């Protein structure tokens, strides 16, 4: 068994994981961040399935005359994780949609700018309100 | 490469489509690594449902990304360091296909050697999913149910005034209609097959639920908004989702009442292996119903929301 082919899948996983991580931390668009999260998630799936693989093995469905099977445990974990992943992605997308309705933008910078502007307006309103009271 | 393109493009529509392609390629890779059940799920979920959901939320937000104003240097530095650390860790990882890897040492031999006799189900993935690790799967079903509730709370299901059954947003596509019409019953039958044959071949409740929901999503997309709602009203769906979780939990409580541990299926019949069969069938049915209704519910919530002007 050669070293490099044996480890190649893990290197792919690291590359994809970092690509997804980069999108999540460095890009401002919320929907793109969710895509990045999906990339990251898929890389973890590949990592698990790679670990469960066994050379010369078959899919873990019992058949006469086959002795080596891939480990079913990582398959189970990832299978459910995929479906849970789509459900949580949907929650994230729903949040993005609501944010877009409130701010008319899904860009992080613009949302922060609007937040700060709203805070300052609120502060201004408070201070002027107090001054009004004093008068 | 596709991942890179997805990062660099600023047209979010292209990004989402590339993400679908990426999912499909991942599914092919899983197939190559002997993980048939996982490949199945990834193909149905990643390439189908996720893409549709992302597209509908793009419709609700906007297609083009704003030009990036921040500098990517800090991000690149962080992922450079993390990536280097991970590559260093990977150098010690067990090689692909190594039979002495830790994964193949702990509980796996027991699942492989005794799973078929103890549970009586040839598909070991189903055996581990529904029987050995039934608690995990119950938890995950509840998570999916909760996610469905969260989407419902955030978006709600709106009846749009513009929504008329039979009028599709993409127009009257004769080719699509005539292709999809004969395809739909086949998809539904395939979904049922995957649901009930999951003990023997690849498949199970999770995949079947998604495939079943995909049929309705396709119907709604091609035959007009509101068509699928006429078949499965949204009001049923949250009850159905709760029913799925209840079936799963009910099997567990029944085995408790019968004097066995929670989700110990041998309580369901006099013969333990027969009880396992029955338990797995019921539990997978619960999972299938819950997943189907939650996925369709999420789709309704996204598709029914009109874009705020």
Describe the model.
The complex is a heterodimer of chains A (135) and B (309). With 135 residues, chain A is mostly helical. Chain A has a single domain (3-104), classed as Helix Hairpins, CATH 1.10.287. Chain A has four helices and no strands. Chain A has helices spanning 3-26, 30-52, 72-103, 108-134. In chain A, helix 1 (3-26) runs antiparallel to helix 2 (30-52) and helix 2 runs antiparallel to helix 3 (72-103). Chain A is elongated. Chain B has 309 residues and is an all-alpha fold. Chain B has helices at residues 2-8, 12-32, 36-60, 73-90, 108-119, 124-132, 134-155, 174-196, 205-223, 227-231, 234-257, 272-304. In chain B, helix 2 (12-32) runs antiparallel to helix 3 (36-60), helix 3 (36-60) packs parallel to helix 9 and helix 7 (134-155) runs parallel beside helix 12 (272-304). Chain B is globular, with a radius of gyration of 22 Å. The model of chain B has no long low-confidence stretch (mean pLDDT 77). Chains A and B meet through helix 1, helix 2 and helix 3 of A and helix 1, helix 2, helix 3, helix 4 and helix 5 of B.
Q: Class of chain A in CATH?
A: Mainly Alpha
Shape type of chain A: elongated
User: Largest sheet of chain A, if any?
Assistant: none
**Secondary-structure-derived class of chain A:** mainly alpha
User: What characteristic shape of chain B results from the CA principal axes?
Assistant: globular
End-to-end separation of chain B? 37 Å
Series of secondary-structure elements of chain B, N-terminal to C-terminal: HHHHHHHHHHHH
Number of helical elements of chain A: 4
Low-confidence stretches of chain A: none
**Rg of Cα set of chain A:** 25 Å
Q: State the domain count of chain A.
A: 1
Characterize the main sheet of chain B.
none
The share of residues in extended strands of chain A comes to under 5%
Largest interface: A-B, 88 and 99 residues
Helical content band of chain B = over 70%
């Amino acid at each position: 068994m050669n070293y490099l082919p044996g480890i190649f899948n893990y290197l792919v996983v690291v590359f994809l994981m970092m690509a997804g991580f980069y999108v999540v931390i460095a890009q401002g668009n919320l929907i793109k961040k969710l895509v990045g999260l999906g990339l990251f998630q898929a890389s973890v799936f590949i990592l698990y399935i790679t670990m469960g693989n066994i050379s010369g093995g078959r899919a873990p469905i019992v058949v006469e005359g086959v002795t080596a099977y891939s480990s079913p445990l990582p398959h189970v974990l990832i299978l459910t994780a995929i479906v849970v992943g789509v459900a949580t992605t949907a929650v994230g997308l729903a949040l993005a949609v609501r944010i877009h309705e409130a701010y008319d933008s899904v860009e992080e910078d613009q949302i922060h700018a609007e937040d700060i502007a709203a805070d300052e307006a609120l502060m201004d309103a408070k201070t002027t309100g107090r001054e009004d009271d004093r008068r | 490469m596709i991942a890179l393109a997805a990062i660099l493009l600023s047209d979010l529509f292209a990004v989402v489509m590339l993400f679908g392609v990426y999912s499909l390629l991942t599914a092919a890779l899983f197939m190559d690594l002997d993980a048939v059940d996982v490949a199945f799920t990834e193909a149905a979920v990643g390439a189908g449902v996720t893409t549709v959901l992302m597209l509908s939320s793009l419709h609700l937000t906007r297609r083009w990304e704003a030009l990036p104003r921040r500098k990517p240097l800090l991000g690149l530095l962080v992922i450079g360091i993390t990536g280097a650390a991970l590559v260093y860790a990977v150098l010690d990882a067990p090689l692909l296909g190594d039979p002495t890897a830790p994964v193949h040492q702990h509980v796996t031999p027991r699942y492989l050697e005794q799973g078929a006799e103890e549970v009586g189900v040839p598909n070991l993935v189903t055996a581990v999913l529904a029987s050995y690790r039934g608690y995990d799967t119950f938890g995950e079903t509840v998570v999916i149910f909760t996610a469905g509730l969260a989407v419902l709370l955030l978006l709600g299901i709106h009846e749009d005034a513009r929504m008329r059954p039979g009028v599709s947003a993409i127009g009257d596509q004769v080719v699509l209609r005539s292709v999809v019409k004969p395809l739909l019953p086949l998809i539904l039958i395939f979904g049922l097959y995957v649901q009930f044959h999951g003990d023997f071949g690849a498949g199970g409740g999770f995949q079947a639920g998604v495939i079943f929901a995909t049929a309705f999503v396709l119907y709604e997309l091609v035959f007009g908004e509101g068509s699928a709602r006429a078949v499965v009203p949204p009001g049923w769906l949250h009850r159905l989702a709760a029913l799925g979780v209840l079936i799963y939990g009910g099997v567990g409580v029944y085995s408790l009442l019968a004097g066995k541990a929670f989700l110990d299926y041998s309580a369901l019949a006099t013969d333990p292996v027969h009880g396992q069969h029955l338990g797995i069938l019921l539990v997978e049915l619960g999972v299938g119903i819950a997943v189907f209704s939650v996925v369709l519910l999420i789709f309704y919530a996204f598709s029914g929301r009109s874009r705020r002007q």
